[in-house]
Amino acid sequence: MARKWTIDEDDAILSMRESGKSIDQIAKKFNATATQIRHRIYLHRPEGEPSEQTDSVRIKQLEKRVVQLQKALEIARRPKPEMKGVSLAKRSKGDYLRVIIPDTHGCKVNVPAFSALLADLEVLKPKEVVWLGDHLDCGGFLAQHHTIGYVSETDYTFEDDVAACNTHLDAVMERCPKAVHHYLEGNHEVRVERWITTQTLANKADSNYLRKMFGPELVLNLAKRGVHWYARGKFHMGVTVPGTIKLGKCHFTHGSRTGAHAASAMLRDFGGNIVYGHTHTMDSAHSRSVHHGSIGAWCPGALCELQPMYMHTQVTRWNHGYGLQFVREDGGFLHVNVPIIEGVSYLVPLTSAIG
Ligand SMILES: [Fe+2]
Description:
single chain; Purple Acid Phosphatase, chain A, domain 2
């Protein structure tokens, strides 16, 4: 099969010949025979040089060469991709970290998972902490619904539960002394208010009195701690859904959707960025809306027991983890669900590898 010569090779052959290189030297350079090199030189000989070929053959060769050069010119003229207008995001002084702590469930906390969170907090030192709710378990308040002999929710007292949650608050606040804390009431904390309301239906004053004594925000000393408390039955920050807050460009709520597609359902409900707990299952969904652009829904999992007795033999899909947001000054953010696997978070060792 005849060797195909490129334009660049022909140009190099002619250039070497013009610089005085011998045919053999050029042949060696191109791993070709002397005859092949002579033929290439012959094809590109200057006009008027004696030819053994007819004019028509010569014309065809030149026409072929013109087509080759036109193609090369066309390729050379094609516009090249440019990086105009590209600006890399730069770190600003106003950027900060926000940590989102999902369902710890008081006495039903998973100690290794919660300890992994504490270890990360020592390094992260977030400026903002969102407690997503269900940090008291309040299992005993459901006792009226329990069947006789079913005691899985009554192996601890409300006092134990409150003490556990206060310990968790102390531990986190100790590690993030400068952080602003937001605490959303979950469906477990609300059991206290429901129980009180049930017991005091005939007397609102009694109800208010008991709530002042046993309400979660009171027993957890949230006001004294400087922690912002958001009741499930009230509207906050102008958001049109009760028990929900908005920080920067992201909503936070305890959540009410469950099931395999909870994240998609939450995203559809809110039509904007939303972080929620309640399902105990690490999940996320993403979409784009004409009004808000790219939006997402995230559940960071939970920090409680993954297979509590009240689930009976039903196998849960729950995961341990917490949420981490890198927040920009303008409220934009990057959300990461940080998994805690068998009581270990890989966040700090792996991110330190970035440098
Ligand atoms: Fe929960």
